[in-house]
Amino acid sequence: xxxxxxxxxxxxxxxxxxxxxxxxxxxxxxxxxxxxxxxxxxxxxxxxxxxxxxxxxxxxxxxxxxxxxxxxxxxxxxxxxxxxxxxxxxxxxxxxxxxxxxxxxxxxxxxxxxxxxxxxxxxxxxxxxxxxxxxxxxxxxxxxxxxxxxxxxxxxxxxxxxxxxxxxxxxxxxxxxxxxxxxxxxxxxxxxxxxxxxxxxxxxxxxxxxxxxxxxxxxxxxxxxxxxxxxxxxxxxxxxxxxxxxxxxxxxxxxxxxxxxxxxxxxxxxxxxxxxxxxxxxxxxxxxxxxxxxxxxxxxxxxxxxxxxxxxxxxxxxxxxxxxxxxxxxxxxxxxxxxxxxxx
Length: 344
Hints:
Elements: E1 3-5, E2 12-14, E3 16-19, H1 28-31, H2 38-51, E4 55-57, H3 66-74, E5 83-88, H4 103-117, E6 122-127, H5 136-148, E7 152-158, H6 162-175, E8 180-186, H7 198-205, E9 208-212, H8 250-267, H9 271-279, E10 285-290, H10 295-302, H11 311-321, H12 329-332
Parallel strand pairs: 3-4, 3-10, 4-5, 5-6, 6-7, 7-8, 8-9, 9-10
Antiparallel strand pairs: 1-2
Helix pairs in contact: 2-3, 2-10, 3-4, 4-5, 5-6, 8-9, 8-11
């Protein structure tokens, strides 16, 4: 397993992390992801550690905290061997302060996560989304307090726009607080919006990408093809619209899948292994979060590392997945002499 620096920090993380959204299945939304219990999670953690995958990502809202509890049981007795990342900000409770990135909510959320995880520190604590109603200074000073108290090692964010992230970094630098070293962001061969502003920002400011949903909500598993019905266990069958992710034009999806099929045939790898390996070649990407309902899925995903696509294969995938970016990014592409893009 390859390890990379997490942004401009001293922490090294594996290029693959394990996402625990499949743990617990405590409500309708997350049952569509998986229902792994503590015994099953322990076996998956065993396999991950054997492969050198030592980073496990969760969130307080995953099955209303049950995913953190299951993860805590699965890593019991071997906490020093793993890196734990989790997230807070989204609503978890009915009260007016049970949501957001206020000092009140973050301290309570962090303490609750520590209890569920059965640990006294979190390696990477991330804001799950931007809270526009709380001053960034309040959020960042609270996170800095948690770092200084030893309850959190590093801080990051997720699902921020460019100005959200830059405003937060500027405030942290102004006051000497712990700054975000990671941005957990959606990025895939059929979702390359991350490249337009967040990737250049990450390069400039030393913020590493921790990629979620790298297979585009199951569209790049190799099971979705022209004229074929969706597989019975696909998350795309969920009736919850937000679970399906952003809409993807069918012809665009099939064009990308065709290119993946061609490269998979050349390499002898599977379609998802190729899609994951492509992401690992991209600037700023520190770790890609993989998920699995069972051992077979996990071992398949672990096969995405230990080899590299050729430049020609990368170019084929780049061309198939290319789209015209929105303004001002398409305009900037005409002036690359002074404003080069982060990728070709």
